[in-house]
Amino acid sequence: MTAADAAPPNTDGPTVSILVISYDTRAMTLDCLASVVAETTVPHELIVLDNASPDGSAAAIAVAFPEIRLIASPENLGFARGNNVAAREARGEYILLLNPDTLVLDRAIDRIVAFAGRTPQAGIWGGRTLHGDRTLNPGSVFGRVTLWSLFCRSSGLALIFRRSAFFNPEEMGGWDRGDEREVDVVQGSFFLIRRDLWERLGGFDLAFVMYGEEQDLCRRAARFGARPRMTPEATIVHYHGASSRRAAREIMTLKARVTLIRRHLPAWQQPIGLFLLGFWPWSRMVSGGALSRLSGRPRFAEAAAMWGDVWRARAEWLGGYPAAAS
Hints:
Layout: E1 16-22, H1 26-39, E2 44-51, H2 57-64, E3 69-73, H3 78-87, E4 94-98, E5 102-104, H4 108-118, E6 124-130, E7 136-137, E8 141-142, H5 147-155, H6 157-160, E9 181-182, E10 185-186, E11 190-194, H7 195-201, H8 213-222, E12 229-238, H9 246-264, H10 270-295, H11 298-312, H12 314-317
Parallel strand pairs: 1-2, 1-4, 2-3, 6-12
Antiparallel strand pairs: 4-11, 5-12, 6-7, 6-11, 8-10, 9-12
């Protein structure tokens, strides 16, 4: 059975189950939920899991949206586990993962569900995201990690030729996200998947504490025949309102990438990939320092210092994530 083999139509429940995992983003979460309610007409259910937010999010959500399914977790389960728990409550034909720091624009959920109906072979679907100032955020979809993409990043080619699809394959450089395409990975802030496929995959792998979980899911789904697709017709705003300190974020990203290399690159490529990945922060630190000295621009010095912090913390990320039980 492949991802193109559609499950029987869901006649008893909603078409799509919308999952929102919140933590300490009360105002943004309330705005997100209001946009879902205002902009969504397809039969749906809204399931919110609050990760023990200290800002009173759960209580505020319960008052403002008494009709939704609210799971007030007594502990912070994180993104991956939170979605896995919330998905157990889902009854829809599709599951939509939606970040709490987003706004749904112009019937985006209706549009992405309709897109899924037109392209059932994909199994996973994504849309277009905008920054808060309504400029394009290209990170809604991206390419998978390969030896070539790792070489381009570690050598600086992906940075120098950012708009080149050849030298910047993970960011799919040069594509303005203005047309429909097959992609390797759909980012988890606006991520639609058939519920039967999600369940067959067991949801997110809980080894990925932060970052990389949707890339791992998409790569595993590809083995079942899924071919994720993106449409610009479904557009949301993604504020990234709860982002972490950049050095800490890069450390977590590298930890996830080590795990992805070990899970999804052929065995003979893994040592080369890990070497290239380990070289990346060192090269960014050195090049940033050189550019700072040559240009005198503070932003290069700041970047060099940040990447220096990441390089010195390599013992934290070189081992990747340990396996975790579901």
